[in-house]
Amino acid sequence: MEEVDKILIHALKQVGTELSEEIDSVKSFTSELIVEAVVRCIRVIDPGLGSALPTTLPPGMSARFRVGMSLAQACQDIGYKGEIGYQTFLYSSETEIRSLLMFLVEKLPRESAEASDQPTGKSAVLQRAIASAIKAQLVAPWLPPNCRLPLHGETQTSGALYSFHSQHLSLPHCVRDPRKKPQKEVNDYQRDFLRPVTAQLSHNASVVASILEQHTAELSAAQEWDNEWNSQGLLSRLTPQDYRARKRTRLRKRIEEQLRSAALPSAESAFGALGSTSDLSDMLQAFKGSASSDHILTKGSHFTHSKKFAFTQEVETVASAVRQTDNHQSQQEELASLQQQFQQLCIDVDQLTTELKHTSVTNAQVLDEMKQRELHNSEEEEKIQVKKKTIDLLPDAENNLLKLQGLVEAGAKRVVNLASQWEKHRAPLIDEHRRLREICSNQDMESSRKLSEIKVLHDKIRVSTEEAKKKEEIYKQLVSELENLPKDVSRAAYTQRILEIVSNIKKQKEEITKILSDTKELQKEINSLTGKLDRTFAVTDELVFKDAKKDESVRKSYKYLAALHENCSQLIQTIEDTGTILREIRDLEEQIETENSNKTVANLERILEDYKAIRQENSALAAKVREG
């Protein structure tokens, strides 16, 4: 059991149990240490189940019983089939604890499972500790500061809380392409002027949130680029640089089209030069809602400017006359009449502007009609020219018909000759076209096959890269763990001890096999002797019984033979009963040793002490209830 206990203690240290160097066997485990070891193992086996279990025993006895029951239930939930209860942890037995710890150590995930399911690298242990601490804090219920016990003081502090507020960060980016060297100005700026991340933010509480936001944005952009390149970039048969350039060009063209369409004038503003001053005023008033229409600069026609100029001269003449007149009433009447004239003039200007717009539209329609008529006239002129040439040919119709017929026949012969020549050239061209189409289709099939192979290779490369990264991180982690291991212990010593254990096990197996074979041989010999004795007694009994009927002395011999056989049977039975009693004695001695190892007396004393403590707690609670 010494080697088994050392293996268990080493495994418990690996999962984070704090064991001193003095503890070298399970017999030295206390109740607090047993609870901590079991909880650490359960947290590694099932983090969701073990995060709600405390690693220490509370001071109150009732709370201790509840913790023991919850631990027993957790062990049963992960598959422990043995007898377990709160007494297993509070009043521990060496055999029960050893079997429980052996079960938990066997249930621990192997290195391969940890490498695939948990993060690896130098910070893997720290990340797992952070995750377990966060899960424990999320599971623990929140309590006000006045109601917190010392147990909750570790997980629920009264420190200040901050909201998740992120700000933009300016980070130096390295050039991944070795052919492109970074510019000197960029390096100078990053070295001399770019401030650290903590100095770029207005509050120190936003550092973590801003870094997480920046990292998430860069990671999502990289993932989107990988997905786009694997889905569309490979199909375009371009290099990544050409694909990015084409995408940038398309985006620039789309932006230019959007800006151009937004900058084009509307249908109403297309006739801005023909529109009235009031329409333009309304449009400007729509863009400048706060400005009044009196202060809007309008652009009218020449007729409008002349009218305004004449009206301005009349107003100045009337104003000078008004200034010379002393009658205030006449000034008011003249001013009213002038206002009426001004309004009438404005109405006339609007009407004229509307008529001008209508005239412009009519002019455009007339221009379109003129263009259509010019096209029609050109067609008619062509027809007239054809008819004129036909009329010129009528006086000498017969000769012209013969000439025309000769031209037609010559044209037909030329067409037939050209058709025959075309057929001569057409057949090889068609064959060449078919051959080229077949080559093109073969190339398309080959390119599609190579494209699919490239995709598969990309997937394999990505998977291999991820595996290489994981293995490299595992290697780094193992190297760091190797550096942290004690240097005074050599591997040869462990190997020698393992070989000694294996040789001892082999010797024990050989001895057990030898004892079993000896036992079988003895049993066979006993069975053969018993059968031989029974057969000899039967033959002797039959011979003596025949002579006993005739001779008195033989009859006495028969009685002695029967008595001897009975005594021998009793002697054999006594020997068997003695062996059975000796086996029972050994079993009882083993049970006594087991009970002594279970510390029954000490456990009974602890149970009595716990019982007294529970009675005291109950009496104290009853006193508080009565006082309340």
Features:
mainly alpha, 628 residues, 20 helices, single chain
Structural description of this entry:
- The chain is elongated.
- The protein has helices at 2-14, 31-45, 47-50, 61-77, 86-90, 94-107, 111-117, 124-139, 150-153, 184-193, 197-200, 207-233, 240-263, 277-287, 302-324, 328-393, 397-484, 491-548, 552-597, 600-627.
- It has five domains: 2-153; 184-261, no CATH class; 290-385; 396-485; 491-597, no CATH class.
- The two termini are 56 Å apart.
- By secondary structure, it is mainly α.
- Helix 18 packs antiparallel against helix 19 (552-597).
Q: In terms of topology, how is this protein built?
A:
Blueprint: H1 2-14, H2 31-45, H3 47-50, H4 61-77, H5 86-90, H6 94-107, H7 111-117, H8 124-139, H9 150-153, H10 184-193, H11 197-200, H12 207-233, H13 240-263, H14 277-287, H15 302-324, H16 328-393, H17 397-484, H18 491-548, H19 552-597, H20 600-627
Helix pairs in contact: 1-6, 2-4, 2-6, 15-16, 18-19
